[in-house]
Every structure is written in C-alpha cells, then in structure tokens.
Design a protein that fits this description.
By secondary structure, the protein is α/β, with parallel strands linked by helices. Helices cover about 40% and strands about 10% of the residues.
Length: about 600
C-alpha cells in the first residue's frame, strides 16, 4: 500500500486536502508522484463546491475549545450558560409581577402586608431553588417605591384620648391655723355632657351573686330571735349566718316583709300614686328624707337641664313634716317643693325618727325597682354638684358599684363606739352589746394590715351606688344589722363589708371626706327643743354567752326610773345645739351659746 492510499479515508474535504499536500511535498523533493484514480462521486454531489464561511468559523471555534478543554468541562460550561439564561428570564418575569401588584392593588381599608408576606413565604418554600432565590432577590433589591408599598405597614391608630382628670393632683390643705376642722377640697369633675356620655350601657358585673330575692311572710312570729322588728321580719341568728354565705342565687330578709309589695301594707306605707311614679324612674334617683320635721328642705343647686329632665328627685317625709310644709305654702299642687317630689310615708315602722330614715337610705333598690343608680343624701345636706358628675367621678371612673366617704377623723370601730357613747348618740349598754358581739365574730381594731381598705368607719350621710345584686345584698344585710342592733350604722358597716369581701372580690370605694364636702354643703338641724335620743335597750344575744371566747359581762341597762328622770330633767332644760366647727359653712361667723350639760344631736 503506498502513501497515497493511506490518505484516502473517504470522499471528505479533509482527506482530499491532505492528499494534495503530500503530492506537493513529493514534487518538491523531486520524486515521482504516483496518482491513484479517485472513485466516482456519488449521485448529486457537486465536485467544485466549497464549505460556507459560518461553518468554518464554528468548526474553528469548537476546535480551539476542544483543544484546550476536555469534553466534560465543555459540557459543564454549556450547562452554566443555560442556567444563567433561565435565571435572567425568571428575574425579568418576577419584576413584571411586582409592578402588576403595585399598580393593580385594590383600594380597601386593610393592610396589604398582612396577606402579601405570607404569599411570598409560601412561594419561597414551595418553589424551585432558582425561583426562591429570585423572590428573595426581588424583596431585597426591588426599587424603593415597590419596597415601601409592600414592606411598610400603615401608621398605627392614635391612642385614645387621656382622661382630662388623669393628671389632677389633690393639693395640700391650706395652712390655716385658725381653722382646724374638716373642710372641702378640690375635685376634678367632667362637664355634664361628657359625664352623661360615659354612662355605662350595661350593668356592672355582680361577682358570685346573680339573682337576689327577698323574704315575704304574712304571719310573723318573733320566736327566739335576737333583736329585730316586724318590719325586718325578725331574722334568727342562723338566718343571719346563712345570709353571709354568698351563693349564685339567694333569698334574704330586706325589710318590707309583710304585704304584697314594698310600701303597700308593709309598714312604711306609700300612696299608690307615689308607688306608680317611683316605678317609672328607670335611670338615676336622688333621694333624701326628713322625719319629725327635724330639718329644713335644702334645694339642689347647679343642676343641669339633662338632670332636671331625666333624674328623679324624691324627698320622703312623715305626716308631721307634711303638715308643716302645707302651712308654709312650700308644697304645691303637684306634690313638689322645687325639684323635690314629696312622698308622704304612713304607718312608720319605728318610733325613732333616725331609724325610720334608714329605710329609704339603705333600701332604695326595693322602693325604686327599675332605677339603675341612686344618690342618697341626708336631709340636712344641700346638693351643689350635678348628679351625673358625681356618678362619673366616684363610680364610673373607679369601676365601682358602691361609694361612700370615710369619716374625717376616726378610722376604727372601737373609737367610733366610744365617741357615740360620749355624745349620748344611743343607749350606751346597747352600743357595748353590739361591739362585744362583733368582737366575738372576729372584729379587730383597724390597722395597716387591712390595706387596701383605708377605713372601717364611714361618714354615712352620702351614699352613691349602682343597683346590682351584690350591692343590693350589701345594703340589705347592713339594714338587718341596724334593725337588730343600734341605729348607729357606722358601727355595723365594716362587719357587713368584710364578711361579703371574704366570699367575693367585691368591695366599697371609700373616698375622702373632703371630697364629699365638695358636692354637699352641711347645714344645721332646726333649732327645736328635743329630748336626747334614747334608744331601746338591746338584750345580749343568746349566742354571745355560748361562744368559747371569754367575754366581759356588759353593764346592765340603766333603771327605767333613772331614764325617765333624766328625760324629765332634759325636757326642762332648753337644748341649743353645741358649737361644732366641722358643721359650720365656710364664711359663716355666727357663734352659738353652749348651755352647760347640753350635748349635740346628730341625726345621721
């Protein structure tokens, strides 16, 4: 086989070119060239045709690539090029989606970021790695306009306006050495319109107790009950103990035991026309009472038109006081004296005028069954602030359902009892029996250990309350203590409060006495000659002697002859109320003469 035959592999352009080069080299070397005839070309093949220029460039490019890199590296390079192309295409499509979201977002009132961010997270978790990278790149490197519209939520709503009285600070009392008694202090009230707007639409929650009903008995028997009266139903000590076991549904003694409804053949009887009018009071009631013509009616001042139209003002009087009002021409044909609607009470249940006054004071929820709130003020007080402002300040602002002022000087029940005995406010033996009974149940002197309770002695001439089951129960049980023991309700207040507080989380808002003096002005009783109040002596309860705690024997009640002698002597001495700086109005310079042996009379 010769060299020419070695160059023939096929009829390709490369083999012919190689044969021509070999022949030229042989001619230059002077050798003879042996030619081999070529086979005939296949049909349709053009002998003189040259390859195109593009084909030559591709072939030379691939030739150099293959020369410097192997086949595997070439494949990897091609894969990278394809991946880069796909990445650029996805990036371009992603930017188009973002522009569509910004331009076509709906104009609703909610935040778009609340639903876009979960969508982006879902795409990143459930898409391919390339798409996840594109979404992350789009969130980080998008244009400022798009990123702000997606990432930044709208500004938060403005905080609710602060209460106008939130920053109010009670100033220190003025340094007046000439006046050392109690005085009013500044109180921050809201305007009447704002106070009315803050009136709760729904009643306050009543802890534990949801339903309260009352004992009704037509045929009463006293039995072995200790203390009490027909009006109160003579509850036994066992019934008293059960009434402090707070349950979801309860039935307790609460006055008006006889008769079909309070005020109708129950004692403390009212006319049917008055009962009908009282049932129509559905909002706020302001109530007071004057018995035995002991005080002059004080007209409320600074009352708004809204209160005059919607608040019920009721003054309870007995027949003696009604006669005086008719003679003085103060009572008009509509049974009114100014703002007060006068209600005459017949068949009073007690001989003591002050004990009769405890009926409307503590049992307003029974006499006004449809009222939501009540404000009680003693007959000697003059109301000088709108009732809505008082309710907002002492109930609604404090989330309380019962408010009463504390005593301006005394905080301890034992001190209050001694003060009552010293002022002859009630029979001393009866006061001792009541205190000894409470001591046997665990009453202790007031101390800082009782905090947050600030006092055990209230100034009971003003009561602000909401009529809900738990507050109604409190006043019912408080009235039962007044009915059983003495009429000095300051002595029994803390016992009832603490027993209810031990079973529930309910308590009383006891505000400062100077704040009370801000919205009521304390007047004087009428200058009438009256014997000192001597209450009926209370016999010691049978359970006191059975208790294991050793108790000193209470002093025996004074003989009847001594009491009648003292009453006769006192009736001969004209009694002028003693000078009391705490009851004097500001700016008053009137002085009263003090008669030796005379003692002040307090109807509260």
């Amino acid at each position: 086989m010769n060299g020419g035959s070695l160059g023939m592999r096929s009829g390709s352009y490369g083999s012919l070119l190689q044969n021509q080069i070999q022949q030229q080299q042989q001619l230059q070397n002077g050798g003879a060239v042996q030619t081999t005839p070529l086979p005939p070309p296949p049909p349709g093949y053009v002998i003189g045709r040259k390859p195109t220029k593009m084909f030559k460039e591709k072939e030379s490019f691939l030739y150099w690539i293959c020369k410097f890199a192997g086949r595997k590296k070439v494949g990897m390079l091609l894969l990278c090029i394809i991946s880069a192309a796909v990445f650029l295409w996805v990036l371009y499509v992603g930017k188009g989606d973002a522009r569509e979201v910004v331009v076509g977002r709906p104009a609703f009132g909610y935040d778009e970021s609340s639903y876009r961010e979960p969508l982006d997270e879902y795409r990143m978790k459930n898409s391919s790695p390339v798409i996840s990278e594109s979404v992350a790149y789009r969130l980080k490197n998008s244009s400022p306009v798009i990123s702000e519209s997606i990432a930044q939520p709208p500004p938060p709503p403005p905080p609710p306006p602060r209460h106008p009285c939130e920053s109010f600070v009670l100033p220190p009392p003025p340094a007046d050495k000439k006046r050392t008694g109690p005085r009013p202090c500044p109180v921050c009230y809201l305007p009447v319109e704002e106070a009315v707007a803050l009136m709760p639409k729904d009643p306050s929650p009543s802890p534990v107790l949801n339903k309260l009903t009352y004992v009704y008995e037509e045929n009463l028997t006293k039995g072995d009950s200790f203390g009490g009266s027909e009006f109160g139903g003579y509850p036994s000590l066992e019934q008293r103990a059960n009434s402090y076991d707070i349950r979801e549904s309860m039935t307790v003694h609460c006055g008006f035991v006889r008769g079909t409804k309070p005020g109708r053949q129950t004692g403390f009887n009212l006319d049917d026309s008055d009962l009908f009018e009282m049932e129509q009071c559905h909002g706020v009631v302001v109530a007071s009472a004057i018995f035995a013509n002991y005080d002059a009616i004080q007209q409320p001042k600074n009352i708004s038109d809204a209160a005059k139209e919607n608040v019920c003002f009721y003054m309870f009087v007995d027949e003696e006081t009604e006669t005086y009002l008719k003679k003085s021409d103060d009572l008009d044909n509509n049974k009114r004296v100014g703002l007060w609607r006068i209600v005459v009470v017949h068949n009073l249940p007690y001989n003591d005028a002050r004990r009769n006054g405890k009926v409307p004071k503590l049992l307003l929820h029974r006499m006004f069954p449809n009222a939501r709130y009540s404000l009680w003020i003693d007959g000697k007080l003059e109301l000088v602030v709108d009732p809505y402002q008082i309710l907002e300040r002492f109930l609604w602002r404090k989330n309380a359902s019962f408010a009463i002022s504390r005593h301006y000087r005394r905080f301890d029940v034992f001190e209050e009892a001694e003060a009552n005995k010293a002022a002859a406010k009630y029979d001393n033996a009866s006061i001792d029996i009541q205190i000894e009974f409470y001591k046997s149940e665990g009453l202790t002197p007031y101390s800082e250990a009782k905090l947050p309770i600030t006092s055990d002695v209230p100034e009971g001439c003003v009561i602000v309350r909401e009529h809900i089951p738990i507050s109604n129960l409190f006043t019912c049980l408080w009235f039962n203590e007044v009915d059983r023991f003495t009429s000095r309700d300051q002595l029994s207040f803390s016992t009832v409060r603490d027993k209810i507080r031990a079973k529930t989380n309910w308590t009383v808002n006891m505000f400062l006495d100077c704040e009370r003096r801000n919205f009521v002005v304390q007047g004087y009783h009428k200058d009438v000659v009256r014997p000192p109040p001597v209450g009926v002596a209370v016999k010691p309860p049978p359970s006191v002697n059975k208790l294991p705690v050793s108790q000193p024997q209470p002093p025996p009640p004074p003989p009847v002859a001594e009491i009648s002698t003292a009453s006769a002597l006192n009736s001969q001495i004209p009694r002028v109320p003693a000078k009391r700086s705490r009851d004097r109005r500001s700016g008053s310079r009137r002085h009263r003469k003090v008669v030796v042996g005379a003692k002040a009379i307090d109807s509260s």
